[in-house]
Amino acid sequence: MLKLYTVSVSLPLPLPQTHKIKTPKPQTLTITGPTTLSGHLPISGSKNSSLPLLAATLLCSNSSLLHNVPTNLTDTNAMLSILRSLGAKVEVDIGSGQILVNTDSVRSVEPCLEEMTKTRGGFFVIGPLLTRFGEAVVGLPGGCDIGERPVDLYIRGFRALGAVAELRDGKMFAYAANGRGLVGGTFHLDFPSVGATETLMMAACMADGVTRLSNVAKEPEVIDLARFLNDSGACVYGAGTDKLLIKGKCHLHGSEYVVPPDRIEAGTFMLAAAITRSCISMSPIIPSHLACLIDKLKIAGCRITQFNHDTLEVSAMPSNVGDHMQGFDIKTGPFPGFPTDLQPPTMALLTTCRGSNIVEESVFEKRMSHARELQKLGADIRVCGSTALVSGGEKGSALHGSRLVAADLRGGVSLVLAGLAAEGTTEIDGIAHIDRGYENLDTKLQLLGADIKRLIR
């Protein structure tokens, strides 16, 4: 079982004045490199935990208060708009990362279709709506085009809980077959999908009877959601293993919860230290959530030191890694395997490492579009399907600045990391993708010494 992240909080209610996040205009990041980073970095709250936690507030009476939410993300903004479109009352304090949600006034079972197209995370609401109201009509999810993310697991999972579910006109229509509500059932996931696991977990919390789910995802975000649900009165057992048991018919009430640090953001900055041959520290961080990446960076020659329980220093200075950093192979997979979200920035690092290294993507078959953009910087990458051969030769590729386009969130940040290591100026368009999942990325890099600017086009 993974260690859970907790902090003590004592904050007054109600929240300060509500703020709304404005949708950013098209912008460009301009990076001049190569650069050396140094300093300490604060890690934001987890986006991948925040979105299902916000959806779970639909199950709760009264108000739920979430702390450490990454409020300056377009994905978070889209999820809040989805909740409001259903009738929820939402108060946001951007400065402190607090979000207060009251869903007592929710009556609609169909969220705004336009907002649903903006984030994959919006689809989480279908589970809570279906189990609370006995029906739901939800548009198919948007997000990055990184491969097929079919909803058949959701459909078959809902059917196992006594629902009728079908796709029509770009929406999923679901309702309780008995006309009253969901019932407990048994379901085996063909693949340990995080989204399907979390959605079915939420749906089962208010179903009549016991639900058993097997081959479920074991990611930290699943544990996080289970903990929030249990704090709110649910009965979820087995989170962090491949089997879940949920006792339904629970009455859930609002609770107060702290979102843990974002392991993908932390991993991205660890890779930033490595690709720039720098030394930076960061906190808060949960090292066990990034054990796979830490092992690979140690193979490359990085020195990784843990201070206290939540601070990590990554040093890739030449005194640690030598003149040329050693490469390594990766294959993505469900937790505790190598995170698919860290594959693109890791590929960027490998372009600067010695030797020929294999990157195999086993989660999303189209998550290789960043390879073409990295090639524009001079990287030697050959892609065949979902596998890439990254060759750095004896000294690692010498990258040079170029004009690039970010096609998705994690692929976009890989271009930023490569730009930090490249000689000259790199310009990156399409950074709205990056803003979906990285809070103030350019500002944080500036604090570490990077020459990076955001330009409005």
TrEMBL record:
Catalysed transformations (reactions): phosphoenolpyruvate + UDP-N-acetyl-alpha-D-glucosamine = UDP-N-acetyl-3-O-(1-carboxyvinyl)-alpha-D-glucosamine + phosphate
Keywords per UniProt: Cell cycle, Cell division, Cell shape, Cell wall biogenesis/degradation, Cytoplasm, Peptidoglycan synthesis, Transferase
InterPro entries: Enolpyruvate_Tfrase_dom, Enolpyruvate_Tfrase_sf, MurA_subfamily, RNA3'P_cycl/enolpyr_Trfase_a/b, UDP_GlcNAc_COvinyl_MurA
Localization (cell): Cytoplasm
Native organism: Acer yangbiense
Pfam families named among the record's database cross-references: EPSP_synthase
Protein's recorded name: UDP-N-acetylglucosamine 1-carboxyvinyltransferase
UniProt-recorded Gene Ontology molecular function terms: UDP-N-acetylglucosamine 1-carboxyvinyltransferase activity
Location of the Enolpyruvate transferase domain: 32-444
